[in-house]
Write a structure and sequence with these properties.
Strand order of the largest sheet: 7-6-12-9-10
Distance between the termini: 40 Å
Number of domains: 3
Number of helices: 6
Order of helices and strands: HHEEEEHEEEEHEEHEEEEHEEE
Shape: rod-shaped
Length: 265
């Protein structure tokens, strides 16, 4: 887990260098305060709050509908309206002076689950960091439920591979988090090793784990072990079943109990 925390911190530092550019993709809404500057036109520069109807009042062009647009799109829209009979090739720059109250819920295997405010452009890694990072029982998946603006109001489900994001550093999975998102970090699937292995314990199940790999992770067989008599206690359709004399390449399933008996000799 310490390795996870170090990698998360490194990725956050790496990603922060891109946030100025990514902020241009921030979608504005009611309550945001925008500082709008027109190059070489100081009298038109203004500070405005987006009203309940999603509009701002701007000099010369009056009310402008901006809610639901990105910062870049707002800049382009204002520039286009000013160019329509007012200014020649206006250059519009917009900064977010004050963000509206936006919240996201983080639950599951994080150290501080709860409701968190978003202060502008925020990525998944930043939210997880605010939530105290992953707990020791965290699995490799995060599920993001996102509200839809469509009439049927169906939620969008986004599955994030945390292993690719955190261990492999694939920042394409470090997606922007938006107002109303609900993030669930799943618990890791476990399997258990009992009997004649050097470190009997519960272990996190990873893709492709076989009996021999599990035993190797547990330190290998003891001198008293009977490798040919390894069995698995597995739940099948809700009932426990014993798989006797399993092969070493048998895939491990969640909640499997691998029992390595003592040799008779």
């Amino acid at each position: 887990m310490k390795k996870y925390l170090i990698i998360i911190a490194q990725l956050i530092v790496l990603c922060s260098s891109f946030c100025v550019f990514a902020a241009q993709d921030y979608i504005v809404g009611e309550g945001d305060v925008l500082r709008i500057t027109i190059y070489d036109q100081p009298e038109l520069s203004t500070l405005v709050r987006i009203g309940g109807n999603g509009t701002i009042l701007f000099p010369l062009i009056g009310q402008v509908k901006v809610a639901g647009l990105t910062i870049s799109q707002v800049s382009e829209k204002i520039a286009s309206l000013l160019a329509d009979g007012y200014l020649v090739s206006p250059q519009v720059t917009i900064f977010i002076e004050e963000f509206r109250s936006q919240k996201v819920t983080v639950i599951g295997q994080v150290n501080k689950p709860g409701l968190y405010e978003l202060n502008g452009y925020t990525t998944l890694l930043q939210v997880l960091s605010n939530a105290g990072d992953l707990s020791k029982d965290a699995g490799d998946k995060a599920i993001i439920k996102r509200k839809s603006n469509s009439p049927d109001k169906k939620e969008t489900i986004i599955t994030i591979d945390l292993k690719r994001l955190i261990e492999l550093g694939d920042t394409s999975y470090d997606i922007p988090i938006i107002d109303g998102d609900s993030i669930f970090v799943a618990k890791a699937a476990l399997y258990y090793l009992n009997g004649e292995v050097r470190r009997p314990d519960a272990y996190k199940l990873e893709d492709g784990t076989t009996v021999i790999k599990a035993i190797t992770i547990a330190g290998g067989f003891t001198d008293k072990a009977s490798p040919s008599r390894v069995r698995i206690i597995r739940k099948i359709n809700g009932k426990e079943e014993k798989l006797e004399r399993v092969k070493m390449d048998e895939p491990i399933m969640p909640d499997d109990i691998i029992v390595v008996p003592e040799s008779f000799f």
